[in-house]
Amino acid sequence: MQIAPQKAETPPYTVLAAGYDTVMAHVEYDMWAAYIADLLALHHPEAQTVLELGCGTGSLALELNTWEAYNYLGTDLSPQMIAIAREKAAAVEAAVQFTVMDFTQLQMPTPVDVVLLLYDGLNYLLETTQILQVFQQVYEVLTPGGIFIFDQSTPANSINNADFFEDRGRTRGFSYVRKSVYDAATRIHTTTFDLTVQGKRYQECHVQRAYTLEEVQALIQQTAFKKLTAYDDFTTEPATENSERVHWVVQR
Description:
By secondary structure, the chain is α/β, with parallel strands linked by helices. Helices cover 27% and strands 34% of the residues. Strands 4-3-2-5-6-12-11 form a 7-stranded mixed β-sheet. A 5-stranded mixed β-sheet has the order 1-10-9-8-7, with no helix packed on it. Helix 2 (29-43) packs across helix 3. It starts with 7 loop residues before the first strand and ends with a strand.
């Protein structure tokens, strides 16, 4: 009997970085960028400097850069993701900078006008104390009147999209099988990636918590931020308890 080679367990977004853009090919980054550009024009049209947290391979940053020439810094904890973001920026000669940074330990030499944390970045913070810590650090790196735009995936998103909890795909030298499990009692959403890169097998486990609209609002109220609004899923309609994704805009 032939024994399958053992999978090496790796931290999130290390091996996955090699095929992340393939895994995320369904995401309409141009639509995301257009929406964020609209929010920036609505809430802070004078903004010049943007700090993106959890920028991944830089897809949103590069799309947003086509809308407005911000002084833009994309950051991510994964050196592998940042390396790809830099390659993509160089390929299109985009004036966007990328660097490795943990968004729970922000270090900025000068304040910025806008901070972005999108596509479930907040949901990787499994405890409310961690969210409050990030809120406080973001507040401190913003200029007076600066805004923080972030989103959250809600329990409704995990419950309503259970049919999409498993998929697979491949590109040159890379293949993946993605499986998700949602525990409604704890609201923990666990996604496991079985990855094959250049013939070697790996596994990454990504754990997120789905927060309700009311929970995040209560956390914002514990900070010095001014609550501007909470939008329902890529619209300018007010978010509700049934929203699958909420985009928040808060101001220093």
